[in-house]
Design goal:
This protein is mostly beta strands. 0% of the residues lie in helices and 46% in strands.
């Protein structure tokens, strides 16, 4: 069992930065791939970024590539999402998720969230124009 708690959301102006954190419980954190997803009002949840269990491989949605960076610290049981050059369209609730087995090709399919095993409750990011 893995419990995930996100933090770091808030209100920021367009062009600004935020860093989200996701703290995981459990001694098996380092064996899970981790991901960030987001859901804007009235829209479906979408994939943002993912990282392999070792941190050696990262994956990004085209909409955030070059602006967001995912990283993890297995010693601290924490995964991060550094968000730079934020845009109003980045406004959403951001969710952290863990996957025992990550299939990168499925991250870009119709149901990328289907392979994630555990979810946090989310943190709200609001970007004002």
């Amino acid at each position: 069992q893995v419990q995930l708690v996100e933090s770091g959301g808030g209100l920021v102006q367009a062009g600004g930065s935020l860093r989200l954190s996701c703290a995981a419980s459990g001694r098996t954190f380092s064996s899970y791939a981790m991901g960030w997803f987001r859901q804007a009002p009235g829209k479906e949840r979408e994939f943002v970024a993912a990282i392999s269990w070792s941190g050696g491989s990262t994956y990004y949605a085209d909409s955030v590539k070059g602006r967001f960076t995912i990283s993890r610290d297995n010693a601290k049981n924490t995964v991060y999402l550094q968000m730079n050059s934020l845009k109003p369209e980045d406004t959403a609730v951001y969710y952290c998720a863990a996957a025992a087995v990550l299939r990168p090709s499925k991250l870009y399919g119709s149901s990328p969230e289907g392979q994630m095993d555990y979810w946090g409750k989310g943190t709200l990011v609001t970007v004002s124009s």
